[in-house]
Amino acid sequence: MTPTPSSDLFGLLLAVATIIVVWQLPYGPQVLYPLSLLATFAHEMGHGLAALLAGEEFEYLLLHADGSGLAAWRGDPGRLARAAIASGGLLGPSIAGVSLLLLARSPRRVRVLLVVLAAGLVLSVLMWVRNLFGIAFLLATAAVLAAGARWLGDVAASFGLRLLTAVLCLSWFRDLDYMFSARAVVAGVVHPSDSAVIADALWLPYWFWGALVGALSLALLLFGLWAVAPPKRSDSA
Predict the structure, then answer these.
(1) CA–CA separation, 180 vs 50, rounded Å?
(2) Which H helix or E strand runs over 189?
(3) Nearest to residue 97, comparing CAs of 161, 145, 168?
(4) 27 falls in which pLDDT band (50, 70, 90)?
(5) How far is residue 38's CA from residue 118's CA, in Å, rounded to a whole number?
């Protein structure tokens, strides 16, 4: 059975609703633990890739079992570049999720995208990931994605990809408290939050930038939903 545009939209809405509901359950975060780790990975990759685009050096990435992560980069960027690198992590998961939504509008691309994602995780491990947990988790995830591309049916493969994109697009919803905090704890060490880094590089308080990032993330999610919605049929005269 091949997914249709209508079933694609229904599958995405079902994935979004499932994630929102499960996150509110007592053990919801544990149920979504692997997907939440992938959202953290996308967050840290957003920092690292933004640093590369700013002309700086992306040194390494750490992904921890407690769900936190760290992207280390080196350089001496200006204020705008520092703010861009910090916002790259906040917006990275949403941008990645919407990009997957747009690319997966054709059902024939779903398996290709699963393979590309698996290859991207392996490449990231080879180039940047430097702790054992991160390496093991990402390689295991790459194997699962590759296996899904090979053996899942069309509907199951499409829903699996939709579930991943929904988690990425909704990661800001899970991290609202982080976006409105001045500090974050990574592996037991206190760091300035990304919103605080942006505020320090530019102007206005950190909560303003947290609110702006939240609004942009919501706008990206709505755009993604609009993009995958089937076109309305015009009534013939």
Answers:
(1) 22
(2) strand 189-192
(3) 168
(4) confident
(5) 12
